[in-house]
Amino acid sequence: MDIRRHVATVAGRQVHYRRAGTGPVVVLLHQSPRSSLEMLPLLRRLAQSYTVIAPDTPGNGLSTPLSIAAPTMGDFADALAAFLTEIGVGKALVYGFHTGAMCAFELARRHPDRVACAVVNGYVHPSAEERDDLLANYFVPFVPDWSGAHLVWAWARMREQYIFYPWYRKSDAARIAIPEPSLDTVQADVLDLLCAGDHYRGPYRAAFTGDLDTAASEIEAPTLIMTMKPDWPLRPHLAHMAPPSPSVTVAEPDTMAEAMALLDAAFAAHRADADLSPAVAPTRPLGDEGWARVLALAGGDLFVRTWGEDTVRPPLLLLHDVGRSSADMGDVAPTWARDRKVIALDLPGCGDSADFGGAVTPVAQAAILREAIAILAPDGFDLVGFGTAGPVAIELALASPDGLSHVYAARPEAPRTPMQPPEAGGLHLFKAWLAERQKILFEPGGSDGRDEAALDPARLHRIVLDALKGQASAAGIIAAAVGHAFETSVEALGTVRFSRLPDSPAAKHALSALLCELEAA
After folding, report:
1. For 486-511, what is each residue's pLDDT tens digit?
2. Largest CA distance in the chain
C-alpha cells in the first residue's frame, strides 16, 4: 500500500495529511492528542476501495493551529471544510473517532453539502457536572520545564489514559478494563502529544463545550452516531442527545469489529454520493514566512522547510546534524533568507522524513538528496552540512559538482549518543533531556556564553522531540558519519569551493560569519 504524505496551505496556515487509494473520497479524523498516524490501520484497509485522506487536525501532528484563542468545534469543522476545498474535494464520506467524531458531527451539521455520509464513533455530550469537571482537569496546560518534569508528566498522562477515565481520577470505579499498553504504544501517543504541545488542549475544550442541545435534530446529511459498549465512559452521553433528525441513525455496537462493520455498510450505501479522487494539490508557499512541503521521492517522502524567495543568488540548502531536523534551522534561516531562498531538509530517517529503507550512510543519503535537489534547486545551489551531515554534504558535492558553487561542512568529531529505546516511565526521554541540557551548559559553544535563546526550555523541548523522531536511525547515521573518509573526500572536491565548519553548537554562528564575509566581498 503506497501511503503518501502531503501539505496543503489553507488560509495562511498549513495542514499535513496522509493519502492513499483511489475511488470515492473518505476523510478520517483522529482523536486528540493524536495525529493522522493513529489512523494508519484503518487508512490501509479502506484504501483498498476508496481514496482515503487523513489530515492532522489543526494544532496536532504537523498541522498549524487555528489562530483563535479558544476555537469551538464549529471552528474546527469550518477549517476542515476549507481544507477539503483546497485539495479539490467537494463532498466526502467522513469518519471521526472521539474528538475527531465531534468534528465529523459538526461538519455534517454545518456543511451538509460537503458530507456524503458521516460516521461519528464516540459521541461526546457530557452532563453539566461532568463538563465542569473535565474543563477543570482534563487538558491541563503543557509547558516545557527546564527540569524536564513535563516529559515525565507526558508519559504518565498518556499511559494513565489507558488505565483510568478520566485519566486523572485514580479509583477502582474509574478503571478501564483493557490490557496494559506496551512501551511502544505509549511512546507513539507521547510523541503526538509532544508535537502538539499546549495546542493539544484546543480540540478537547471544543468537544467538551459544544452547543449540542438541539444539534442532532439539525443534521441534514446522512449520519451514523455510535458509541461502542466497551467505550463505557461515553455511553451515557447518548442519552443527552437531542431527538435526532430523520437523517441520523444511532447505534451501540458491542465491539470495534461491529463498529467497523457498521462503518463499511454506511459508506457502501453512500459511496456514489462522494467525489472521486482529485489530483494531488501542490503546496502553495506562504510568502516570506517559513513553510513546509513533502517531496514524493522514489523511495519515500522527504519533509522540507523553505524560507524566502528566489533571487539572483543560489538557494542555500541546509542539512541538519543527527538527532535534529529542519526545524532546528528556524532560529537562523529567516536571517539568511533576507537575500536568497533557504531550504532545509529532514534527512532520511530523521525528523518527519521517511527512513528510505534504512539509508544511513553518507553516500546513500546523498543519492536520495540528489533526487530532491533536482526538484528544489535545479539551477544550482550552495550547501551546508552540520555535524554528521557534513559527510553527506561532501558526498553530495562530489556527485553534483556542476550545480554546486560552495559547500560548508563539518567533520563529525564530537561524541554523540542516540536516544535509548523506550523505558518505563519515559525515563529515556528524561535522560535525553538532561544530556542536551548538559551540552548547552557545559560544552564549548553550547550557549556560546551569550545566546540566551539556547537556555529556553521550549527550544530544548524541540531538540528532544527531534531526537525522539530520529531515534531508530541515529546509531547507524552516527557510525557511518564517524567512519567516513572526510578529509580524503574534501581533497577530491576539485573546483567546488569548500569552507570548514566547527563540529559544535557554535557552527551556526560560524556559518553566519562566513556568509557575511562573502556578502561583504
Report:
1. 999 999 998 889 999 999 888 998 99
2. 77
* Rounded Cα distance, 383 and 414, in Å: 21
Q: By C-alpha distance, which of 437, 442, 478, 450 is closest to 144?
A: 437
Domain ranges of the chain: 4-125+212-273, 291-419+470-520
Phi, psi of 56 (to 5 degrees): -80, 125
DSSP 175: B
* Whole-number percent of the chain with pLDDT over 90: 85
**Cell reading at 176:** 478501564
pLDDT (average), residues 321-337: 94
Q: What is the DSSP string of 106-153?
A: HHHHH-GGGEEEEEEES-----HHHHHHHHHHTS------TTSHHHHH
Mean confidence (pLDDT) of the chain: 94
List the one residue out of 383, 382, 467 whose CA is nearest residue 419.
467
Backbone region of residue 34 per phi and psi (left: phi > 0; alpha: psi in -120 to 50; beta: other values): beta
- The confidence band for 449, taking pLDDT boundaries of 50, 70 and 90, is very low
Compute the distance between CA of residue 285 and CA of residue 278 in angstroms, rounded to an integer. 20
Does residue 148 carry a pLDDT above 80?
Answer: yes
Q: Average pLDDT in the 222-241 region?
A: 92
The CA dihedral of 308, 310, 312, 317, to the nearest 10 degrees, is 70
pLDDT digits (tens, 9 = 90+) for 170-219: 999 899 888 899 999 999 999 999 999 999 999 999 999 998 989 999 99
Nearest Cα neighbor of 9 from 111, 87, 89 is: 87
Output the pLDDT for position 446: 58
Question: What's the grid cell of residue 473?
Answer: 536511525
Find residue 26's DSSP bridge partners: 52, 93
Q: Could you tell me the pLDDT band of residue 230, with boundaries at 50, 70 and 90?
A: confident
| Whole-number Å distance between alpha carbons of 138 and 333 | 37
H or E element in which residue 305 lies: strand 300-307
Among candidates 392, 295, 288, which has minimal Cα distance to 341?
288
- The architecture (CATH level 2) of 4-125+212-273 comes to 3-Layer(aba) Sandwich (3.40)
Counting runs of H as helices and runs of E as strands, what totals does the chain give?
A: 16, 15
Letter string b/e over residues 417-428, b meaning 16 or more CB atoms within 10 A of that residue's CB: ebbeebeeebeb
Nearest Cα neighbor of 423 from 94, 152, 209, 241 is 152
| Residue 258 pLDDT | 97
Q: What are phi and psi of 53, to 5 degrees?
A: -120, 125
Rg (CA), the chain: 24
Q: Architecture of domain 291-419+470-520 in CATH?
A: 3-Layer(aba) Sandwich (3.40)
Distance CA(466)–CA(139), nearest Å, equals: 24
> How far out from the chain centre does Cα 127 lie?
33
What pLDDT sits at residue 454? 74
